[in-house]
Design brief:
single chain; mainly alpha
Length: 445
């Protein structure tokens, strides 16, 4: 499948909606917590077990992005979006069969493994293309697209909850809900496949800003040999672990936190909390990544990691005494979580250039895979053990939150260690660029 080249006069502002149609769909993954209580009740699962499809999905997201990044660069965004559409929708259909037959392994395989491949390929499919269309505002451009991934649950959470209410929360109802999800997302993602275009000759349509291959350029194979890559890997992993721990457990967590108070949280209110977190996640992606264009990537990650640790500290110390405080801190953490995702492609572009930035981004997303296991595992495993020990309410999460604070501090230190990439890793400048005396090496943030 040849990359679809934009015709003369094509507006670059049509590309973000194409990216959004894919990211809004695959962003459903963040609404997985809505399915956890029905699955646990219908199939007799523990909290740790019901997290497996989500965890495997995030693992496959990182692995497929890492191994498929070069293919996405080679075959273009339309090919990648088509692969994402097929895998993500098929994953839901297999999960539907698993729920209908009460074979949980089919749900894990379908939603987690097959759907997870769709998550990874779909996630990186528009990133490189958007940076080439918007070389003057890379943070904003990737923020727009990746905002959709954060906002997917804003749509999926109430939609899924309503379906479970209408179809029933037994295995048959869950199966029907999975089936509707798979078919609906296939139709919606098709819009992005048909709309996406790459710039003509990979040249940006604006005169402002640097040309795509100006400045420092590092190949994907060289990038993974630099300390800068691994510092960013640690930064992303720690920031994601801290956010995803709340996100995956959001609905049952807020219910547990205030179960012993005079104002317990209902099931519908918990679903609303998940939707609020998704809104914060989405707003952080466009808001914080756009801010990074102004204050620099390193500074914005200092905010994500430093202030994020303070938010976790406030929740652990005072969260169960104030519902507004708990909600505000969780929203801030999730906005940083989303901002971290949306800013990392621009951070990579600053350090390694636009040459193979999509492939480098794919390899870096293995940090997300690791975090996708660590975050839910820490929160669910500790909560299950605390429950077995007779604890309840906010006590189920105290230890988890202290661990998250420590991880954010580790990420903060890794961000401080990021320096410009050494010249020995740079690829030779193209002849036309070498002949242009105006071209200067790009400085890292």
């Amino acid at each position: 499948m040849s990359p679809p080249v934009a015709p003369p006069g094509w507006s670059r502002w049509l590309v973000p909606p194409a990216a959004l149609s894919v990211h809004l769909s695959i962003g459903q993954a963040y609404a997985w917590s809505v399915f956890k209580p029905p699955l646990e009740s219908a199939l007799g699962l523990s909290g740790t077990q019901s997290a497996l499809p989500f965890q495997l999905g995030i693992v496959m997201l990182g692995l497929s992005a890492a191994f498929g990044g070069t293919l996405v660069e080679r075959n273009g965004p339309r090919w990648a979006m088509t692969v994402a559409l097929v895998c993500f929708s098929t994953g839901f259909l297999i999960a539907s069969l698993g729920a209908a037959t009460e074979q949980y392994w089919l749900i894990v395989f379908g939603y987690g493994f097959v759907g997870g491949i769709g998550l990874g390929i779909g996630y990186i499919s528009p990133v490189s293309t958007l940076i080439k269309w918007f070389p003057d505002r890379p943070g904003m451009a990737t923020g727009i697209a990746i905002m959709g991934f954060g906002g997917g649950a804003l749509i999926a959470s109430p939609w899924s909850a309503q379906m479970l209410k209408s179809f029933g929360s037994d295995s048959s109802g869950i199966a029907l809900a999975f089936l509707v999800h798979g078919l609906s997302y296939a139709v919606f993602m098709t819009l992005g496949v048909l709309l996406v275009r790459v710039p003509r000759g990979d040249k940006p349509p604006v005169k402002a800003g640097p040309a795509p291959l100006d400045g420092v350029q590092v190949s994907a194979n060289s990038a993974v040999r630099t300390p800068q890559f691994w510092c960013l890997w640690v930064v992303l992993c720690m920031n994601v672990t801290a956010g995803i721990g709340i996100l995956e457990k959001a609905a049952p967590m807020i219910t547990d936190f205030f179960a012993d108070t005079s104002t317990p949280v209902s099931v519908s209110a918990a679903a609303g909390f998940v939707a609020l977190l998704s809104a914060a996640n989405m707003a952080g992606r466009i808001g914080w990544s756009s801010t990074s264009d102004l204050i620099g990537r390193k500074n914005i990650y200092r905010v994500y990691l430093g202030v994020g640790a303070i938010m976790y500290l406030l929740i652990s110390q005072f969260g169960d005494s104030s519902k507004p405080l708990f909600i505000v801190c969780a929203l801030v953490i999730l906005s940083f979580y989303g901002g971290g995702f949306a800013t990392i492609p621009a951070y990579l572009k600053d350090l390694f250039g636009t040459y193979q930035v999509g492939a480098i981004h794919g390899r870096l997303l293995t940090a997300w895979s690791t975090a996708g296991v660590l975050g839910p595992l820490i929160v669910n495993w500790i909560a299950d053990r605390q429950k077995e020990a007779g604890k309840h309410g906010a006590q189920l999460y105290d230890t988890s939150f202290l661990i998250m604070i420590g991880l954010l501090v580790v990420g903060f230190v890794a961000n401080e260690l990021v320096r410009p990439v050494h010249a020995r890793h740079h690829i030779p400048a193209p002849r036309e660029a070498a002949d242009d005396d105006s071209v200067q090496p790009q400085q890292s943030a």
